[in-house]
Amino acid sequence: MRVAFIGLGVMGFHMAGHLQRAGCQVTVYNRTPARADDWLREFGGGSAETPAKAAAECEIVFICVGNDDDVRAVSLGPEGALGSMAAGSVLVDHTTASAELARELDRATGERGIGFLDAPVSGGEAGAKNGKLTVMVGGAKESFQKAQSTIEHYAQCVRHLGPAGNGQLAKMANQICIAGVLQGLAEGMAFAESAGLDVDALIQVISRGAAQSWQMENRYKTMLAGDYEHGFAVNWMRKDLGIALREANRMGLTLELAEMVDGFYADVQAMGGGRWDTSSLLARLKDSK
Q1: 180, 258 in Cβ contact below 8 A?
Q2: Could you tell me if 15 and 150 lie in one domain?
Q3: Range of the domain at 65
Q4: Which one of 141, 162, 183 terminates a domain?
Q5: Domain boundary among 162, 191, 220
């Protein structure tokens, strides 16, 4: 299968690599050509100078970039992928973006006889590297069926959740849940430390009960060590929470906890931690003592 992958950031680099190793003929595009060169040296495949050239003659075109504007540029722009995609092909957007953008792209692709899926992912860089991502998908069932087996090369769970936009709405719910869990974990660890408990021993006990979470299992050791130079950056979480809060506002829904934690992440950014992992909420608590 001929596929294109547009955007080789911390996630896309590995996702595209899984496709190439699985036997797909992958052509990549990245805004910074040096990153594409690094990918070619590691995985082989091909690269192109523009999204349109990367997408030419491909059955599926994947996008994984930064935000709504970036997605529009590489898909709908003068040298965007849609300009060269053939009818019957599928555009899959893995970017965490707005549901409005997903519906806009669904309309634009539909006018050209091209399928579209909004398919944001969860699992972080480790999930991308290990091929263990969770993918939340919106779009037509027919397009999903065309792309599902290819997406599964880098995912442990791929679920179709309804029409275009629903993938992005699911990712918003995902980020809202994560934000609350991380703040609870940070507060629990800060409390235990202030009480004089052995936090490492405590986590080993409570992680076997109802307090257990992915964040607890995978982040408590680095949180104890004050190591946040890894993982999913605070800057990106604030972008994601901003999207979710704007969507909630349109629904007339108040998300008090998400709003509060978003403000706490703003504090972490002010501490110079914009690129720290989202578990750095503990650093904020310690800084406030």
Answers
A1: yes
A2: yes
A3: 2-162
A4: 162
A5: 162
- Is pTM beyond 0.85? Reply is yes
| Separation between Cα atoms, residue 136 and residue 85, nearest integer Å | 23
- Other CB atoms within 10 Å distance of the CB of residue 64: 27
3-state secondary structure of 44: coil
Same domain membership, residue 206 and residue 109:
no
Would you tell me how many other CB atoms lie within 10 Å of the CB of residue 85? 27
Choose, from 171, 221, 239, 286, the residue flagged as catalytic: 171
Residues 157 and 180 in one domain: no
Give me the residue label for tokens 């496709």: 19
Q: 């896309």: which residue's tokens?
A: 12
Active-site residue 239, yes or no?
Answer: no
For the chain, how many structural domains are there in total? Answer: 2
Angstrom CA distances, 159 to 39, 82, 141, 286, stand at 28, 25, 11, 39
DSSP symbols for 7-38: --STTHHHHHHHHHHTT-EEEEE-SSHHHHHH
pLDDT digits (tens, 9 = 90+) for 92-141: 999 999 999 999 999 999 999 999 999 999 999 999 999 999 999 999 99
CB 64 within 8 A of CB 6: yes
Say if residues 175 and 240 touch (Cβ distance below 8 Å).
yes
Check if the beta carbon of residue 124 is closer than 8 Å to that of residue 102: no
